[in-house]
Design brief:
The protein is an all-alpha fold. It has 23 helices and no strands.
């Protein structure tokens, strides 16, 4: 126990000390310094922050749990993201940097009107508080409890442990975002990212060595032969958890929105010291995305192979922690716990920082205090982070985990992703789309999704199953695509009937050097080919 505690505290303190050392001379009194890291982020810091902003315990616990219950088709959440990140590096990031943006709603305010920007910022903030922040805390608390058996060790109930862990981890994560700003967040993400990769890859390696009597390749061969249906990446079996067709409908919308326009990811690129470093960082992170399934999907299949007789489908959240306890030496458990906590902290503090940026730029600075000083913006950002952190810590223990935790997160996000992406893309592609159409899409789109997927789920499912002649449930990603098309069609029709006055968000002087990375296109092609290659290799 002593070794575990020392290794846990050692790695956690190492991250804090390094983050402090790199930011202690920075004065967090200006907009760029606090919210954009002084526009000084290098490629590897951007890549590490992108990776850990995205990957957390909802992936380690949630996606591995889904692979335990279903197949490696859930890999699509990682592999298709890599292609979307290529689009970010080559098309979206240069456009954003050229316009000197801090937030995506800031672009919408320039393209449409101020109210559109305010609505978009409110939608972002609502989705963060309702889905991302509490799910990250809950999955982290569940994983840590499962790994260390805190209920038995301290004689507490599961509910008490979850509350304590949610508030403990949430408070610690808030400190990075509130005190250090984006630069401290990005640096801590990078260090935690190294630990995440080492610890995450160590688990399947140790498990396969155990199965293969010391030979990981023999272990992988055993798992593949005995659990071959689990390795169907197309997921095209009847009643699929993630049908292959969804990759060409809602998955496209989901990934393009998240990685090309999602504030929590784009903000890392906006803090780049120049376009070259921004593109390089995004594309390095895209390469890591292709390694991600080895950490967040394969262990779930291995856990199924090892524990299918002892863990039932309802125990899917225990699959990954059970595997960790079975294969990880005691002397490494503290380090691995620190990695898990670091992953939670990284995603939590990154989203908090992005939330504060959205609130300050698009609500506080646009509506409440347009004449606020830069120091006042920083104070407002810290106050927003505190409020959102408290809200997330209150909501997290109340989330229902009887179904897929990862699917819950994606379903809630999908309500906002489709309409927002339609508004952003059509704003870029057509000068005729009006602010009225944009506002109607931002408000009406999520309402339509909730009606289709939540309020009238049963009759809608029955109708569509009859139309398509299937008994399988229509996946929510298909509804995401439907809502995107409906909103885009409405906006195009509105543009024809009631075209906007000429209003285009004109780029101003870029705040950083805009010379592109000379290998950006080649790297983008390589990542895209490797992503498609995963499906060609593992399709059954």
């Amino acid at each position: 126990m002593l070794v575990t505690t020392v290794s846990f505290l050692g790695f956690t303190l190492l991250v804090a000390v390094i983050s402090y050392a790199y930011t202690r001379r920075d004065r967090m009194t200006t907009w760029d310094a606090y919210f954009l890291g002084g526009r000084s982020l290098a490629a590897w810091v951007i890549a590490g922050s992108l990776m850990l902003t995205n990957l957390s315990t909802e992936h380690l616990i949630g996606l591995n749990g889904d692979a335990f219950n279903h197949t490696i088709a859930v890999t699509a959440w990682e592999t298709t993201a890599a292609i979307a990140m290529v689009a970010t590096a080559l098309f979206f990031l240069p456009r954003y940097l050229r316009m000197s943006l801090s937030t995506i709603p800031e672009y919408l305010a320039a393209r449409y009107d101020r109210t559109t920007g305010v609505i978009a910022a409110a939608v972002f903030l609502f989705s963060y508080v309702l889905a991302i922040l509490p799910v990250v805390l809950l999955s982290g608390a569940t994983g840590i409890d499962s790994l260390f058996g805190l209920q038995e060790g301290f004689g507490l109930s599961q509910g008490q442990v979850i509350w304590l862990l949610v508030w403990g981890v949430g408070t610690l994560g808030s400190l990075y975002a509130i005190l250090g700003g984006l630069k401290a967040v990005a640096i801590s993400d990078t260090i935690n990212g190294v630990g995440f990769l080492i610890g995450g890859l160590m688990i399947p390696l140790l498990a396969l060595m155990q199965i293969g009597d010391g030979n990981p390749w023999a272990g992988l061969d055993t798992v593949y032969v005995e659990e071959r249906p689990k390795f169907d990446i197309t997921g095209d079996e009847p009643g699929s958890f993630l049908p292959f067709g969804a990759l060409f409908t809602g998955m496209v919308v989901n990934q393009v929105f998240a990685w090309c326009t999602g504030q929590q990811f784009i903000q890392r690129g906006l803090g780049a010291r120049n376009l070259k470093e921004g593109q390089k960082g995004v594309l390095i992170a895209a390469g890591f995305k292709l390694v991600g399934p080895l950490v967040v999907v394969l262990p779930g299949v291995i856990a199924f192979h090892m524990f299918k007789d002892t863990l039932g489908p309802e125990d899917y959240l225990l699959a990954y922690p059970t595997l960790v306890k079975a294969v990880l030496p005691d002397w490494l458990s503290g380090f691995f716990a620190a990695v898990m906590v670091g992953a939670v902290l990284s995603t939590f503090n990154s989203v908090l920082n992005s939330s504060a940026t959205l609130f300050c730029r698009d609500i506080y600075g646009s509506v409440m205090r347009p004449d606020a000083s830069q120091r006042e913006f920083v104070y407002a950002g810290r106050a927003c982070s505190i409020a959102l952190a408290l809200a997330a810590m209150l909501v997290a223990p109340m989330i229902d985990t009887s179904g897929s935790l990862y699917n819950y997160l994606q379903k809630i996000n999908a309500a906002f992703f489709g309409p927002m992406l339609a508004v952003i893309l059509l704003g870029m592609l057509s000068v005729r789309v009006s602010a009225f159409a944009a506002k109607a899409g931002l408000v009406g789109g999520p309402i339509l999704f909730f009606l289709l997927v939540f309020s009238f789920d049963d009759p809608v499912q029955s109708f569509l199953q009859g139309v398509f002649g299937t008994s399988d449930e229509i996946h929510f990603l298909h509804f995401l695509a439907i809502v995107f098309v409906v909103v885009a069609t409405f906006m195009l029709v509105s543009a024809r009937l009631r075209p906007a006055r000429s209003r285009v968000a004109e780029p101003g002087p870029a705040p950083v050097d805009m010379t592109p990375w000379k290998h950006a296109k080649a790297m983008g092609i390589l990542v895209s080919v490797c992503s498609v290659g995963c499906y060609l290799l593992l399709a059954q």
